[in-house]
Amino acid sequence: MITIANYVGGKFLAPAAGHYLDDIEPATGRPYALVPGSDAVDLEAAVAAARGAFPGWARQTVEERSRLLLRIAEGIEREAEALARAESIDTGKPIGLARQVDIPRAAANFRFFAHAVTQFASESHGMGTAAINYTLRDPLGVVACLSPWNLPLYLLSWKIAPALAAGNTVIAKPSELAPMTAYWLGRICIEAGLPPGVLNIVHGSGPSVGQALVAHPAIKAISFTGGTKTGAAIASVAAPQFKKLSLELGGKNPTIVFADCDREQALDGALRAAFANQGELCLCGSRIFVERSIYEPFKRDLVARAEALRLGDPLSEDTEQGALITEAHLDKVLSYVQLAREEGGRILTGGVRVTVPGRCEAGYFLKPAILEGLTHDCRTNREEIFGPVACLLPFDDEDEALAEANGTEFGLAASVWTRDLQRGHRIAQRLDSGVVWVNTWLLRDLRTPFGGMKHSGVGREGGFEALRFFTEVKNVCIKL
Ligand code: NDP
Description:
Layout: E1 2-3, E2 6-8, E3 11-13, E4 20-25, E5 30-36, H1 40-59, H2 62-78, H3 80-91, H4 95-116, E6 124-127, E7 131-139, E8 142-146, H5 152-165, E9 169-173, H6 180-192, E10 199-201, H7 206-215, E11 219-225, H8 228-238, E12 244-248, E13 253-257, H9 263-275, E14 285-291, H10 295-308, H11 327-342, E15 346-349, E16 353-354, E17 365-366, E18 369-372, E19 389-395, H12 398-405, E20 410-411, E21 413-417, H13 421-430, E22 435-438, E23 453-454, E24 457-458, H14 463-469, E25 471-479
Parallel strand pairs: 1-5, 8-9, 8-11, 9-10, 11-12, 13-14, 13-21, 14-19, 18-19, 21-22
Antiparallel strand pairs: 2-3, 4-5, 6-7, 7-25, 12-24, 15-18, 16-17, 20-23
The site of NADPH dihydro-nicotinamide-adenine-dinucleotide phosphate has 31 residues, from helix 7 and helix 8.
């Protein structure tokens, strides 16, 4: 049993009250670590450390901050294999995915913002011979970064790296369900020589220490990724205190497949978009709109591919579908499969709990489900399920596909599959979606703005958008 500690003021600390929560391995259903159930006392220690470290860190040269972030990236790369294993055990995701995506991306986040901050410039606005304005962008102070369990180190580092690069000190709260790689990050930061108190990681449950962190008057900005309901709760706490807020929330993303697509590419793309990471990605395409003329063959081939996905022990090299994060989440996903039936849907494949023999027999596995026969506006097609459940919907023309694709309260991501590039541009312009992929899915350039519209969030992460978020703007006007 591993005992996780908070990382505060450059040291590993046990929670003051000695309270711990179980960290369950989703593939086995058994606890394998203890996570601090931190409280207000632990939070105050982190606030004191972050406040104390702020003036020194903010005064550091950009080059020095950049150098330290690069050392953290190198530390993650050095320990990539162990981190990938930890991420797989903690979340139930296939180790191959953690190796290919989660851990390289966490290192890339630090490396990217280490470089980006050296290129971050502010504006100057001349007023002829009368005056000149220039813009200052200063660090905010102590900021909070809260992240979910589905991409633990990937999303935590996506927030921490720009916050630190811009000169802020950070208190991070990883999800209590997947805290292991954040714990390791503390050690990597110590080895990298990050000054004590610049980054602090406090573990515990969202409603207790997460909420206290968000509400703390010392916190100047909150960067949160998680569910839409939690985002609304955080906004209601942050708004009266006028804290800067970046919210990356849920999605119910459309995959739109036209008859003229490259069929093999579209099938691969739709399958990956629906079931990558067991469908536990905010970007997953859970509503698959298919032009009616190819609907039947596309359906047949997609179902065959879903049935061929290798489900099993996340630590096995060839596993493509691992376990869902908790039993409660598995039950929630199963309840949506039942709801789909009640709403008149047909289950074409999957949607049942699976027992994986051996060490994983008590794990939380669900056979990926493809549904059809549901209207676009039923609950199954409007609410985020966040599991391996996708619904096929036929359409007759562009306008119908667009109206239905845009017909939810979410607006995070979409993918469009067509050989007609003019149509690709046209649809991209008309989709209510923060990110639109044409003939691809989840292809990311870290310089691009990332985030959602409508109930999928407020603000954008990525590139200079993130550095702008983590700085306070001041206009200085000099009369000439
Ligand atoms: P939650 O909203 O439950 O939790 C996210 C984080 O917030 C966790 O660290 C959680 O802690 C914490 N938290 C929970 N309640 C509060 C609170 N009242 N105050 C402060 N912090 C709190 O999301 P999940 O972890 O269940 O993640 C799944 C959700 O995340 C999905 O809706 C998904 O769409 C969304 N998501 C969005 C992404 C995007 O970029 N738009 C990317 C990835 C996921 P704890 O878990 O310890 O309770």
